[in-house]
Amino acid sequence: MKIYEALKWASSLLEEAQRDQNAGELLLRHHANMSRTKLLADLRSDLDESVLQAFQKDVKEHISGVPVQHLTGYEEFYGRTFLVNKEVLIPRPETEELIVGILERAAALFSEKPVSAADIGTGSGAIAITLMLEKKNWKVSAVDIAESSLKVAEENAEKLGATVNFMHGDLLEPLKEAGTTVNIIVSNPPYIPDEEVDTLSPTVKDHEPRRALAGGRDGLDFYRRLAKDIPFVLAEGPFLIGFEIGAGQGEAVKAIMEQAFPGKTVEVVFDINGKDRFVYTTSR
């Protein structure tokens, strides 16, 4: 079978199953070890039989609900490749915008001074590792409640050459216990209301850890807990707090932060798709 025929076959099955048709190209590039440019240039080339069989197997696996990233074992994030598995949330494109927002605000607050940052609920380590690699003079810590998630994050840090202080524990407790203070707190915590988790796509609810999804009755439990404890781990001087939130939660999370940090600047920022997606709190 030729490459274009394999892609057409996959596209038809994926469309019928109401899956993302782009998954076919991603899986074929993975199994053929081809860049997108090479794949498009070789559309009329024959596929090796072993590659074709592996590709067809994974297309059917994805149709059954397995995320593409679990089939390939990785996801691209901020120009880098991160290992992922069932123990971590798959990094989303929206979270790249959180990185941009943190870096822009940090530049205004701290200029090029070395600062310390902590990523709470690090999962794959995508946020913490990216911040460390983008700002080599920062000191970055990362916390997760699951040792299995930290194992993935540590592997990513080693593979990408990032020095991150990984800490095991519940939200800010490891920082408090260690007496660690930071200038920047960033988090993409679980924010989906508990009763809505089971309504998510099977690729999410059946394959990504529930602990990274469910945020309590209204989805805001973790923001309340973080807001309560963050003052105990902030260093003296300017500070920056950045949260990713669920669409529609902007005003509620803003109110939580305004109550916890009276007189400070709290802003709701919309993502590229026009949805309220981030809340930033700064000391000025």
Descriptive overview:
Belongs to the protein N5-glutamine methyltransferase family. PrmC subfamily. It is an enzyme of class 2 (transferase). Residues 116-196 form the Methyltransferase small domain. The protein is an alpha/beta fold and 284 residues long. The protein folds into 2 domains: 3-64; 84-282, Rossmann fold (3-Layer(aba) Sandwich). The protein has helices spanning 3-16, 22-32, 36-41, 49-63, 68-72, 93-110, 126-134, 147-160, 173-178, 194-197, 202-205, 221-229, 250-260, and strands at residues 74-77, 80-83, 116-120, 139-144, 165-168, 184-187, 240-244, 265-270, 276-282. The strands form 2 sheets. A 7-stranded mixed sheet has the order 5-4-3-6-7-9-8, sandwiched between helices. Strands 1-2 form a two-stranded antiparallel ribbon. Strand 8 (265-270) and strand 9 (276-282) form a beta hairpin. Helix 1 runs parallel beside helix 4. The protein starts with a helix and ends with a strand.
Please tell me the overall pLDDT.
96
- Poorly predicted sequence stretches spanning 5 or more consecutive residues: none
Q: Considering DSSP H and I runs of 4 or more, what fraction of the residues is helical?
A: 40-55%
Order of helices and strands: HHHHHEEHEHEHEHEHHHEHEE
Count of beta strands: 9
- Rg, rounded, reads 21 Å
- Helix and strand composition category: alpha/beta
CATH architecture of the largest domain: 3-Layer(aba) Sandwich
Named CATH topology of the largest domain: Rossmann fold
How many helical stretches?
A: 13
Q: In what order do the strands lie side by side in the largest sheet?
A: 5-4-3-6-7-9-8
Distance between the termini: 61 Å
The geometry reads as elongated
Q: How many structural units, i.e. domains?
A: 2
CATH level 1 class label of the largest domain: Alpha Beta
Residues in β-strands, percent: 15-25%
Assign the CATH superfamily of the largest domain: Vaccinia Virus protein VP39
Q: Characterize the largest beta sheet: strand count, sense, and whether it forms a barrel.
A: 7 strands, mixed
